[in-house]
Specification:
By secondary structure, this protein is of the alpha/beta class. It has two domains: about 100 residues, SRP54, nucleotide-binding domain (Four Helix Bundle (Hemerythrin (Met), subunit A), Up-down Bundle); about 190 residues, Rossmann fold. About 55% of the residues lie in helices and about 10% in strands. The chain contains twelve helices and eight strands. α7 links the parallel β2 and β3. α2 runs antiparallel to α3, α4 packs across α5 and α4 packs across α11.
């Protein structure tokens, strides 16, 4: 029990540090408005709405949050602005909680659990794969990494370095090879070696969107043909610093490939981490991971209450 509390405390502190920029803009901005003694009027509500939009919470989620805050203010007969911040915190939690779904490799039986990882170049996709591999290898779970982004030599090299750090079995083909063949070989290797987890890196060249989506669909088809039910997870890596562009990227990938989980990276590098609320509200895709730093341990399972507590905690 003590260990669990200690681990939870460590996660909280990392999240708190990682979310400092977002807290400064979102919670700091709201806190400035919602000072003790200020009355509630339309001007205040409009300013609070502006703070939420600036933090990239998104129009849809902002509308829902404001409706919830107004409803609770009326229901509880609140007249002082200072009492509104806890209401806002609860409304944010209400949006995020249904999409709390930490990553798990259970459910594939004796077969390897296959994860197809998607994302635009530069989101931190390959690094995220490496961190997941490292985590599972540290727990004694053998991992196969597949370099199916065959058109970027740098991506293959980066993933190979991660495979060495994580102690994972690495599958690659020559430059320009068929990504489906790499994925196929990775699944076969995991089956032969009885490795429980396969992580497949894929290309993310959105400037050739149509060709890319067809290529990724083919990879997914080949995996499913070799191992019925696979891929068991289609994980999309999004960069929080891109704000609303992340929503557009998610829609594109989701429409083509039915994304089953999201990893939101680089939250420590942006003041617009409110995008996580927009993702939950507008996309309704389970949230698996949040990245709050460059270290191996900085890829965290997403837990809504810990996340919201860290976001709304005082930094001073």
């Amino acid at each position: 029990m003590k260990k669990g509390k200690k681990e939870k405390g460590g996660i909280f502190q990392k999240l708190r540090r990682g979310l400092a920029k977002t807290q400064g803009l979102l919670v700091g901005g709201a806190d400035d408005l919602l000072r003790p003694g200020r009355g509630l009027d339309e001007a205040l509500y409009e300013e609070l709405e502006e703070v939420l939009i600036m933090a990239d919470v998104g129009v849809s989620a902002t509308t829902r949050l404001m409706e919830g805050v107004r409803r609770e203010v009326k229901k509880k007969g609140i007249a002082d602005a200072h009492e509104v911040l806890p209401l806002l915190r609860n409304e944010v939690l209400e949006i995020l909680e249904p999409y709390e779904a930490p990553f798990s490799i259970e459910g594939s039986g004796k077969d390897p659990f296959v994860v197809m990882v998607l994302g635009v170049n530069g989101t931190g996709k390959t690094t995220t794969i490496g961190k997941i591999a490292h985590r599972y290898n540290s727990l004694g779970t053998k991992v196969v990494l597949a370099a199916a982004d065959t058109f970027r030599a740098a991506a293959v090299e980066q993933l190979e370095i991660w495979s060495q750090r994580a102690g994972a079995h690495f599958i690659k083909h020559g430059s320009g090879a068929d990504p489906s063949a790499v994925a196929f070989d990775a699944v076969k290797a995991a089956q032969a070696r009885k490795y429980p987890l396969v992580l497949i890196d894929t290309a993310g060249r959105l400037h050739t969107k149509e060709n890319l989506m067809e290529e990724l669909k083919k990879v997914k088809r080949i995996i499913g043909r070799e191992l019925p039910g696979a891929p068991h997870e289609v994980l999309l890596v999004l960069d929080a610093t891109t704000g609303q562009n992340a929503i557009a990227q998610a829609r594109t990938f989701h429409e083509a490939l039915e994304v089953t989980g999201i990893a939101l990276t680089k939250l420590d590098g942006t003041a617009k981490g409110g995008i996580i609320v927009a993702i939950a509200e507008e996309l309704g895709i389970p949230l698996r991971f949040v990245g709050v730093g460059e270290g191996i341990e900085d890829l965290q399972d997403f837990h809504a209450e810990i996340f919201v507590d860290a976001l709304f905690s005082q930094t001073t």
